[in-house]
Write a structure and sequence with these properties.
390 residues; mainly beta; Beta-galactosidase, Chain A, domain 5; binds alpha-D-galactopyranose
C-alpha cells in the first residue's frame, strides 16, 4: 500500500465520517487549552518524580521542539508521561495518557503506562524458550505466560538519563546476564526525541555478550482527543497490514498469519476502533477487544504503518517503523482504578497502544522473524510517531 493511498484514504474518510477536517495551523502559539473541562499545558511537577530507587536517582525530563510541542519523561522505566501536540486550531493537547507522580506509577495496577518495554515485548509462552540447545525459564507474570519482560521489566528499572539538548533525551541501561532469566549482559541505549516536524522519535540500540533474545518497544498509551476526553472508540484507524497473528485464549500466537480480509481486523481502509470491537468473533473474545499483533506489509521507511485520527481534535498520528509487527491494544484491561495526570480515572478503553515490535512469542516460533541477538551484532531499530492535523 502506498503512503499516498493511506493518506488519501484517511482524508476521504475524515470527510465522509467526521465532516470537514480543519486546516492545520503551523504556528503554535498556545500552550494551554480547555478540552472537556481539562486544561492541558501544565507539565507534571519535578518534585513528584524525585526519588531514590535501587540506589539510583529518578527525575523528570522535559523536551520541546521549535513549534512548542512538549514532552515529559521520567528515567523510572524510561516512561513518557506527557506529549503536548497541536490540534487543528493550534491548541496544545496532551495525547499521552500518564500519571502525575512517580508514586502513582509505582502503585498503578496497570504496569506499563508509557514505559520502555523489554527485554522481550509482549508474551513468551509458558515462560520458556530454548537458545543454542539450552532451555531458559522466565517468571510467568501473565499466567501462564511471561509478558513484557517478566516480573520486573524495563518499565520498572531506573535508567541512566542524559539530556543531550532541548529536543533529545538519551537513556541507557545495563540489563545483566540472567536478569529476569534472560542470558547475556545487554547494554541498551534508547534515544527519545521531539523533531521539528512534530514527531516523537524512538531509537533503540543494544549489544550483548551472550546469545539472547531482544524485542524492545515503547508502551505509550494514546488518546488523540486528549487524556481524559473519554473512550477511544471513535478514533479512526488505518493499518498497513493484510495479515495478523491470531492468538489462543492466553494471547499466544497460534503460529498462523491469517488474512484480515472479511474480519474485524481489517483496518486496510480507515475504520473506527469501536465499529466492530464488540462483534461476535473468537479472536476479539480472546483479546477482550483488540490486543493483537498485525503483520506489517512490506513497506519503505517513508510509508506509515499506521494512521490514527482523533475524532474530536482532528489530530492525526502516523507511525513509521522498521519493525515487522505492531501490537494494537485497545485499552481492554483499563479498569478505572488509577488516577491519571488530570485527576481523571483510567476508565475502560480511554487509551490505546500501538507497540511496534517483533511478533509475540517469536523465540518459540521458528517461522516468525528472529529476535535472536548474538555477540558482535548490534540491535538497532527506530519508531517514529508523527503528529499532524490534515
Ligand atoms: C500489551 C499486551 C496486553 C496488555 C497491555 C497492557 O498490549 O498485549 O495484553 O498487557 O500490553 O496491559
Amino acid at each position: 500500500m502506498k503512503l499516498r493511498n493511506l493518506s488519501l484514504g484517511v482524508l476521504s474518510a475524515c470527510i465522509a465520517l467526521l465532516g470537514a477536517c480543519n486546516q492545520s495551523n503551523n504556528k503554535t502559539t498556545t500552550t494551554t487549552t480547555m478540552n472537556n473541562s481539562i486544561t492541558y499545558g501544565q507539565l507534571p511537577a519535578d518534585s513528584a518524580f524525585e526519588k531514590t530507587i535501587d540506589g539510583k536517582q529518578t527525575h523528570l525530563y522535559l523536551l520541546k521542539n521549535k513549534n512548542g510541542m512538549q514532552a515529559a519523561f521520567t528515567n523510572y522505566g524510561g516512561r513518557i508521561i506527557t506529549l503536548l501536540v497541536p490540534d487543528s486550531s493550534g491548541k496544545m493537547i496532551d495525547v499521552s495518557v500518564g500519571i502525575g507522580s512517580l508514586d502513582g506509577y509505582i502503585k498503578s495496577t496497570e504496569s506499563y503506562y508509557g514505559g520502555t518495554i523489554g527485554r522481550y515485548g509482549n508474551r513468551i509462552a509458558k515462560g520458556h524458550f530454548t537458545l543454542d540447545g539450552k532451555q531458559y525459564s522466565l517468571f510467568t507474570n501473565n499466567k501462564p505466560n511471561t509478558l513484557h519482560g517478566g516480573k520486573k521489566g524495563y518499565q520498572d528499572v531506573v535508567w541512566d538519563a542524559k539530556k543531550i539538548n532541548d529536543q533529545t533525551l538519551e537513556l541507557t541501561y545495563l540489563s545483566k546476564n540472567m536478569e529476569e532469566g534472560f542470558p547475556g549482559n545487554l547494554h541498551i541505549k534508547v534515544t527519545y526525541s521531539l523533531t521539528d516536524d512534530n514527531a516523537f522519535k524512538c531509537e533503540y540500540e543494544a549489544t550483548t555478550d551472550k546469545t539472547t533474545v531482544v524485542n524492545l518497544t515503547n508502551h505509550a498509551y494514546f488518546n488523540l482527543n486528549g487524556e481524559g476526553s473519554g473512550t477511544i472508540l471513535n478514533h479512526l484507524v488505518q493499518l498497513n497490514a493484510k495479515r495478523y497473528t491470531p492468538v489462543d485464549s492466553t494471547l499466544i500466537p497460534t503460529g498462523r498469519l491469517d488474512a484480515v480480509k472479511g474480519t474485524p481486523f481489517d483496518f486496510t481502509k480507515p475504520a473506527t476502533i469501536g465499529a466492530r470491537i464488540n462483534d461476535n468473533d473468537d479472536q476479539l473474545k480472546n483479546g477482550k477487544g483488540y490486543d493483537h499483533n498485525f503483520v506489517l506489509n512490506k513497506h519503505d521507511e517513508n510509508q506509515p504503518v499506521a494512521i490514527v485520527k482523533g475524532d474530536k481534535t482532528g489530530i492525526i498520528m502516523e507511525i513509521y517503523t522498521e519493525e515487522p509487527g505492531l501490537q494494537f491494544y485497545s485499552g481492554n484491561f483499563m479498569q478505572g482504578k488509577n488516577i491519571m495526570k488530570y485527576g481523571e480515572k483510567d476508565e475502560y478503553r480511554t487509551a490505546f497502544a500501538m507497540e511496534t515490535q517483533h511478533y509475540p512469542d517469536s523465540p518459540n516460533q521458528p517461522r516468525f522473524p528472529s529476535t535472536v541477538l548474538k555477540p558482535g551484532q548490534t540491535y538497532k531499530t527506530q519508531t517514529i510517531y508523527k503528529f499532524k492535523t490534515r
